[in-house]
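Deliverable D4.2, example record:
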Amino acid sequence: MDLITSFIYKAMSFRLRKIERYTTKSDSIQMAQLAQVLKRLNNTAYSTKYSKKPIQSYEEFSKSIPIVEYENIRTFVEEMLKGEREQLFSEKCQWFATSSGTSGGRSKYLPVPNSHLRKCHYRGASDTLWLYLDTRPDSQFFKHKSLVIGGSHSPSQYGRGTHTGDLSAILVQNMPLLGQLYRVPSKSTLLMGEWVSKMQKIVEEVHSEDVGSLSGVPSWMLETIMAILEKTNKQNLSEVWPNLEVFFHGGISFEPYRDKYQSIIPSSRMQYRETYNASEGFFGIQNDPSDKSMLLMQDYGIFYEFIPMSHFDDPERSAIPLCDVQKGVNYAMVISTLGGLYRYVIGDTIQFTELSPYKFVITGRTASYINAFGEELMVHNANDAISTVASDMGLTVLEYTAGPRFNLDKANGYHEWVIEFEKAPSDPTLFMDQLDKELRKVNSDYDAKRYADMALLMPKLVIAKKDLFREWLIKEGKLGGQHKIPRLKNDVTLLDQLIELNK
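Output generated by the structure prediction step:
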């Protein structure tokens, strides 16, 4: 390490010793987090809805507070957006992270109070760096700049000093001084809302900088890299930034992008580290470059519970604490946080690969979805959009499925739809144009990624022959019973099978 990086790393070695306690003190650490959460919860409008007295133990907590999703807390959050306190917690909350994917509207708003920012999101960001440096003795991290790509924020429609926006923008707006010193581009550029102008400004600012690390979502970062290569007329990024050593990525799966990144960053020093930092909280860090599993971060003011996916749809579903999980079981993650989420189903599914310490991989979502480019397209979005367009055009859709196709040379891609109609549309291009417009209406993330064909291109249609989906069900031995056609898949396995059968 260079002297500056070595000095900062050694100064933070006490934090690594605390993380080492995850292996031997997990139960006590989690009980301490629960105590913080209960202190936060008690005497709020939310707690009094379910309990007449303060909740003091996990047993009382699990019996009194239900397992919920966003629609169960929407009214409390909307009161907070208006400036009301004592709803989900007593602390004043200025920032709300937006995320789409709920059935009740275009976006959901997740409280991000200052205490949650400090104890969860910023602690996660710093721990990511300390864990990286712990396995990277040749690092020169603080000798070079760090390129960060993120979104924007704006005053909320509810007013009273509250702001809504991407979590990444909230983190940049409130970033500690050390992060501000080493980050590029400038804050004003990074928080721009219009993506085309923002991209141009980012490229102008950073192409001549000495960048050593990258942080962001793989799809957007790749698009930025391709623009920088075009600007500099270079063949690969190592020619532009020879000191580049790591990409901290998250948000979507890195696997479809891995080969492309390795081809445009041919440096043998380059590493890729995954983080699990969602709008709801920071949950995991890849601490070993040879292991794709992430370390579950246990002392961020988050109490974890898990629902086995085999029982997720049970009418009386229950969750288990971290100490009761098993390896290899697919779980829906349930979180209780200092951000005012209590027994909240985040929507992701994970499997544990180790139990001492707890390490895991993300296995998917609790519902069918496509999130290859950060668009978070959910089944209810697709169902609503396709139903509206078919009705408007006098068509009947019998079956459909969709998935992502990647165009990595251009750092973008598109959705391919296989649709079986009762009678095919006379103008298939018009049908897809209307479907695209309707999807942009019902899903703000899809709309953002479709802007100017930057990350997501127009969807494409494959018209299925009669009984194609039935033929697939028969071939897979899934005809009848409870078997259904997966509406959305985050890979092309099903698409390829159907298209082959459609020949």
